[in-house]
Amino acid sequence: MRFVWAVVAFVIAAAMIGAGIAQRTVFQGPSETTTSVQTEGSAAYTLIDGSVLTSVPGAQTLRVEGDGAVFVSYGRTADLKAWLADVDYTAVTVDGEGTVQTADQAPTVTPTSDAAAGRSPIDNDLWLDEYEQTGSLSTTLQLPDDMSVLVASDGTAPAPSNISVTWPIDDSTPWAGPLIVGGGIALLAGLVLYLLGIRHVRRSRRPRRKGLPLPVTEPISIAESDAAARDASASKGVVSESPARRGTGSRGRRALVAVPALGVSVALLAGCSADAWPQLAASETPSPTPTVVVPEGQFPPAVTEAQAKRIVARVSSTVSSADAALDQNAAAQRLSGPALAERATNYTLRAALPDRPALPAIPAEPVQIVLPQTTGTWPRTLMTVVESADAATPTTTIMMMTQETPWDEYKASYVGNLEASTNLPELAAPYVGATQVPPDSSFLTLAPEKVAAAYADIINNGENSTSAALFDTANDLLLSAIQDNKTKRTDELNQTGAGTAEISFAASAGPAAPIALATLDTGAIVAVNVYESDTAKPTNADAVIKLDNNPAVKALTGVDQSATGFTTTYSDQVFFYVPSQGSDDKIRLLGYRSSLLEAKVSP
Q1: Contact call for residues 411 and 405 (beta carbons, < 8 A)
Q2: C-alpha to C-alpha distance for 601 and 175, rounded to whole angstroms
Q3: How many angstroms separate the CA atoms of 507 and 458, rounded?
Q4: Which residues contact 93 (CB under 8 A, 6 or more apart)?
Q5: Quick one: where's region Disordered (predicted)?
Q6: What sign does the dihedral 52-96-76-83 (CA atoms) show?
């Protein structure tokens, strides 16, 4: 019966081990699947839709081959289509049956310039990421269906035509390991049963003695008996083996028989990887985190946090180069509005006055705060707060940047410095974004379009201003700095032209439109432009205003004296926190930048 059970164990072992090996060999499916895309058009761009990338679940490995430069970027499908709206391109999509197809797409909007067809896709602010190689390019992505991939060469030459997308396929065999182990155990059990059967057969063949009465024996000295046995054996030339040694040899033979069974199992398991076993370990439960509720129907943020950091780095690099070269056109690539105007004046002054200091540089990192606008159209707004990495000049820069169209880069229109004691209001996370508050919004204590004029009135009239009660003037450092400058300018004029000249001051709202982004408490961060002007005039018909102690005004006007006087204008870029309507809080200054803008001879 033992042999029967041994045979059964051998059969089971062979079946289990064979099944386990078969799962890892002949029955194991392919580890990946590939879809090839062959384009034959002459379009400079190819757009691979997100439906193609997600037609098979899993990470997407994109391979592109061309004759020269190969460029690949990815971003939101809507953004990429908006960028391609004024050019011809090849669209790669998938139909309802899962078949990949290509089609030529004509422009849907009138090109804004002749440069549309040849514009470079490199370093565009719309891309979430981009890659460049020569000849061929391969990268692994994990994109959702609302993102697409743009393939190009240099924006002028035809896009690379050989494209393939590969997805991994789950070819794990979680039961191969258990089957092989189970087969090894069954094989070992069969060997044990087989050996037990052999031993049983051998014992059953031995002669059996009948039971006889044993004679009465006398005590015999063991030592004498052993000596006599040795003498007898020696006389016959026979050496007997001790029972202990015979027993040891028998156990050794049985152990050697069991070793091959173990060796077979170990050898089979050596080729099994982790995917040959069931994944029984329980997944760790993530720690609860605060939930941010995104309003239903809200657009996604204009940029991601990673995008914003790249944009800030590009703005910093471009402006730094422009500052070094005193190149206003270069600065205009990344600056606009009040931020560009102050730079242009500074370049003029530095060209005429070598000792004139440059404006503070725009730091590239670390980016501390990113607040993008939630929108699906243009223009788009982005607010960032960046700390200076230079320990010698520690500053915290706040910027409002705008992208006017899909084909424009983000440009900083407002740049200011946050005070060390400034506490920003609570802001939404970068992946949620903030809505842009309309200039005429009635949900704030003061509409954004009225903030600049109200603040200018406080500068002009102080506590007598009708707007003074709306602002936190007690902690406003800009107001105190403006008042100090007024006193200084008045004292200088009195010393140089006592009784022959006078100076007047006036503030007004600047021409730049305000930018406002909502905070979590339904308030808003509002950036506005304010002009401060001072006019020095002679009070005596025979007197003149000289610029001996004012080289900056002299450099801007081109004269060193005037009988009618001079008007000097400063531009203030001011950032406020404006609370919501009904709040007990006041409008609070967050940061600012004040720079000389222009000077001219009074009429």
Answers
A1: no
A2: 90
A3: 9
A4: 49, 51, 52, 100, 101, 102, 103
A5: 225-252
A6: positive
Q: What number is the average pLDDT over the span 258-279?
A: 54
Class of domain 300-433: alpha beta
Higher local confidence (pLDDT), 102 or 212: 102
User: CA neighbours within 13 Å on the CB side: how many for 383?
Assistant: 24
- What is the DSSP secondary structure assignment for residue 534, as one 8-state letter? E
Strands 501-509 and 515-518: unpaired
C-alpha distances (whole Å) from 563 to each of 492, 501, 542, 560 are: 18, 10, 8, 11
pTM over 0.70: yes
* DSSP string across 540-593: STT--EE-TT-HHHHHHHS-SEESS-EEEEEEEEEEEEEPBTT-S--BEEEEEE
* Alpha carbon distance 507, 461 (integer Å): 10
For 240-255, write each residue's pLDDT tens digit. Answer: 444 444 444 444 444 4
CA distance 82 to 126: 10
Element (H, E) at 532: strand 524-538
Residue 542 class from Cβ within 10 Å (0-12 exposed, 13-18 middle, 19+ buried)? Answer: exposed
Q: Which CATH architecture best describes the domain 32-168?
A: Sandwich (2.60)
8 A C-beta contact, residue 565 and residue 536? yes
Q: Structural domain boundaries of the chain?
A: 1-29+171-200+260-273, 32-168, 300-433, 437-603
